[in-house]
Design a protein that fits this description.
Distance between the termini: 13 Å
Shape: elongated
Number of helices: 2
Structural class: alpha+beta
Radius of gyration: 17 Å
Order of helices and strands: HHEEEE
Helix content: 25-40%
Largest sheet: 4 strands, antiparallel
């Protein structure tokens, strides 16, 4: 079984799913094992959807303060960051933390 990052569980959609699953477990409608299977399917589906359906490109420019790579997960801390998307520029003057994961599947 391939490994999918659990990164998107902290998104608004992922948090809502986790809350709903917890309510179903507490009400006795599903088992914790089924909830974990649902979360595993969510991880797989969101990763595949983002990699195959999102075609947007963003250009970023800023000052890289720190970076780290551990197990193909990059963490970048950037200040004075600006994004350019479809000829519009958005500037973020505070600190931004970017977490980027490898798009390779397990075993590749």
């Amino acid at each position: 079984m391939p490994f999918y990052y659990e990164l998107y569980r902290s998104s608004t959609l992922g948090a809502a799913l986790i809350d709903s699953l917890n309510e179903l477990i507490q009400a006795g409608h599903i088992t914790p094992q089924l909830a974990m299977q649902v979360l595993g399917q969510y991880d797989k589906s969101i990763s595949e959807a983002l990699s195959s359906k999102v075609k947007a490109k963003v250009t970023m420019k800023g000052h890289l303060k720190t970076y780290n790579n551990c197990d193909d997960v990059w963490t970048l801390n950037v200040t004075n960051l600006s994004f350019k998307y479809d000829h519009e520029t958005f500037t973020i003057t505070d600190k931004v933390k970017i977490v980027a994961c490898s798009n390779r599947r397990a075993g590749e």
